[in-house]
Amino acid sequence: MTEQISQPADDFILGTVQLGLPYGIANQSGMPSREDAIAIIRRALDLGISKLDTARAYGESEERIGDALNGDLRGHVITKLDPLDGLNDSTPISTVKRAVNSSIRLSCRALARDHLPTLTLHRAKHLSACNGTIWRELVKMRDTGKIGRLGVSVQSPAEAVGALHEVRVSQIQLPFNVLDWRWREAGLPALFRQRKGLNIHVRGTLLQGLLTSDDIDVWPEIEGVRPAEIMQKLTELTERFNRQNATDLCFAYARAQDWIDGLVVGSETQEQLEANIALFENAPLTAEECLTVERTMPPVPEQLLDPAQWPLPAQ
After folding, report:
1. pLDDT band at 214 (very low <50, low <70, confident <90, very high)
2. Domains along the chain?
3. Backbone angles phi, psi at 296, to 5 degrees
4. How confident is the model over 232-286, as pLDDT tens digits?
5. 51-53 and 171-175: which strand pairing?
6. What is the CA 281 to chain-centroid distance, rounded?
């Protein structure tokens, strides 16, 4: 075990999808056991990490967080609404309301909490889907204290713009890494800065582990993507900026963006957790170094930036 970090980074958010189901194309260890998952969460709390990111759709994640916290109020849990994939605009309003309330009730039960500090939509389309019933129901629960902050998980700049149009959205989670040019080109950082009281959390900083894997064979086969070139550039930048490793470089680049408030970082083991937290003690990249990263990394197709669009691996 490493020594406890005296001043933990407040922009480190423990991602727990890996603790509830097998996740990550480069994940070699699989889903931790219940005991190991609980130990990881409790270790994070002991190291001063207070924010935990989960979702109703993350398998056993919420239940394991609830077991780990066991009344410990140090953990600020950010969870996501059930994807509600079976609902549409023709679904009766009463059915939609029951589904939304069921998701909130089950999350509270799993997390052993009587309210949810922060809830985000798992699907950005639910801001308006089902004739707006989903969002109205959540706003009602926020107004009665069942939910604290409301947010949206987005996949694209277009979805982020849509979320910004809803004034009651106070948190947005989006994917971002050293290859992701979309937010910059769409002018989103300036729009995010203009919105008072808005928190931006980013996920996928390591692109499901691809950006730090030594095995280029785990990369999805996408036209226009050259894994060997990407990894070579990452190695060159890591050495040029005197970073500890590629993980350090990726974290430092994301942490340097002044529009980002926190990084969702997952871990499959306590050792990985401690190593990741330690990297947050390092300084972010400078503005000049960020420009160098953006000019050095090769352009990639948007398909690579959205794991949902990755082709299934050959059997």
Report:
1. confident
2. 12-215+254-282 (3.20.20.100)
3. -90, -40
4. 999 999 999 999 999 999 999 999 999 999 999 999 999 999 999 999 999 999 9
5. unpaired
6. 20
CB burial class (10 A; 0-12, 13-18, 19+) of residue 72? Answer: exposed
3 state DSSP class of 173: strand
3-class DSSP state for residue 258? Answer: coil
Query: Residue holding tokens 């969702």?
Result: 264
Find out whether 112 and 150 touch, Cβ atoms under 8 Å.
Answer: no
Give 57-111 as a 3 state SS string: CCCCHHHHHHHHHCCCCCCEEEEECCCCCCCCCCCCHHHHHHHHHHHHHHHHHHH
Q: Which residues of 116-132 are buried (b: 16+ CB within 10 A; e: fewer)?
A: bbbbbbbbbebbebbee
Kindly tell me if the per-residue pLDDT of 100 is higher than 50.
yes
Q: How far is CA 33 from CA 40, 51, 181, 255, 287, in A?
A: 11, 21, 37, 31, 41
- Residue 253 neighbours by CB under 8 Å, 6+ apart: 177, 178, 284, 285, 289, 290, 293
pLDDT digits (tens, 9 = 90+) for 103-116: 999 999 999 999 99
The answer to whether residue 312 scores a pLDDT higher than 90 is: no
Strands 262-266 and 147-153 turn out to be: unpaired
Give the C-alpha separation, 291 to 293, whole Å: 5
Give the pTM. Answer: 0.93
CA-to-CA distance for 21 and 139, rounded, in angstroms? 30
In the chain, beta strands by DSSP E = 12-15, 51-53, 76-80, 116-121, 147-153, 171-175, 199-203, 262-266
Buried b (16+ CB within 10 A) or exposed e, 79-91: bbbbebeebeeeb
